[in-house]
Amino acid sequence: MERRTSRNVAFTCGRWPLDPGRSTLVFIHGAGESSLLWNAQVEGLKERANTVALDLPGHGRSGGRARQAVQDYAAVLVDFITAIEAPRPIPCGLSMGGAITQQLLLDPAAARFQAGIIVSSGARLRVLPALLDQIAADMRGYADMIDRLGFSEKTPAAVKQPFLEDSLKADPRVAHGDFKACDDFDVMQRLGAIRVPVLVISAEDDALTPPKYAEFLEQHIPDSTRAHIRDAGHFVPIEKPSEVNAAIVRFLDANRL
Ligand code: COA
Q1: 122 — phi, psi (to 5°)?
Q2: Which residues contact 198 (CB under 8 A, 6 or more apart)?
Q3: Model's pTM, two decimal places?
Q4: How far apart are CA 195 and CA 111, in angstroms?
Q5: Measured at the alpha carbon of residue 37, what is the angle toward residues 190 and 254, in degrees to the nearest 5?
């Protein structure tokens, strides 16, 4: 896995330079997180597609300021994809990243995207007031809450640890702004306008974006398929990487991407 930077945006990639003959999976992390979330996909899918995971501005190793709205993060993605000249980009986002993916597919410039992948997300992402309060109060309490609500009880502590340590490094103001952006997000009435194939990945034990949200996406996005993964929570790419990667490969193969 390589680490690179483009115009102040840090990213990891399976290979560089990107292969112009392949699609590019562009992985987008969720609120207060970083590209670390996608390490197993960036590495594990690099033989099948170009794989790139960015740190959104103000997150991880990226400079710049965090944004306050999903639409503004979507604009960041368009700039990033243009700057790295990603061939045939396919946005793949988790939670807030899934909201950014929906926003990208709904954008008038969506013609540039041939498909999308929405993981542990929903068309509306109201946030528990207690979660917002906890971020403002103390980050360790927030990390405890993420540990409790974000993972399946069956996921071993050693699997969660690097991610939880990474969450503690987040700037509380950035994390709070991200969750506020989620809270304001609502495209429930607009999903029918998505015109490309979409893979919806959900997890059985997800308490933050329950499977009900994925059912709604599956029912309302015209060309959607769903992979529902057992014994995993919100952070399914970390908890069940092989299952997530296999679902993505099936989707790419089925749609000749
Ligand atoms: N897809 C499908 N249905 C959805 C939905 C989505 N994305 N978002 C909300 N709904 C449903 C709810 O299930 C609810 O249905 P019900 O009336 O049959 O129970 C209804 O729409 C209204 O829900 P909501 O607007 O979210 O308000 P609420 O007052 O019921 O709940 C919360 C507010 C915060 C308690 C709730 O949204 C929640 O538990 N969220 C998950 C926890 C969280 O903070 N996640 C972080 C996401 S980034």
Answers
A1: -165, 165
A2: 105, 115, 116, 117, 118, 217, 221, 223, 224, 225
A3: 0.97
A4: 9
A5: 55
d(CA 181, CA 167): 18
| Residue of minimum CA distance from atom 41 in ligand 1 | 208
How many angstroms separate the CA atoms of 228 and 234, rounded?
12
- The token pair that represents 108 in the structure block: 């008038």
Centre of ligand 1 to C-alpha 19, Å, is 41
Q: What residue owns the CA closest to ligand 1's atom 23?
A: 126
What is the distance between the alpha carbons of residues 136 and 254, in angstroms, rounded to a whole number?
Answer: 44
Determine which residue's CA is closest to atom 24 belonging to ligand 1: 126
**Confidence at residue 111, expressed as pLDDT on a 0 to 100 scale:** 66
pLDDT in tens, the chain (257 residues): 999 999 999 999 999 999 999 999 999 999 999 999 999 999 999 999 999 999 999 999 999 999 999 999 999 999 999 999 999 999 999 999 999 999 999 987 766 899 999 999 999 999 999 889 888 888 889 899 999 999 999 999 999 999 999 999 999 999 999 999 999 999 999 999 999 999 999 999 999 999 999 999 999 999 999 999 999 999 999 999 999 999 999 999 999 99
What count of residues does the chain have?
257
What is the 124 CA–ligand 1 centroid distance (Å)?
Answer: 7
Distance of CA 165 to the CA centre of its chain: 19
Sheet-wide strand order for 24-28: 2-6, 9-13, 50-54, 24-28, 89-94, 116-119, 198-203, 224-229
CA of 126 to the centre of ligand 1 (A): 6
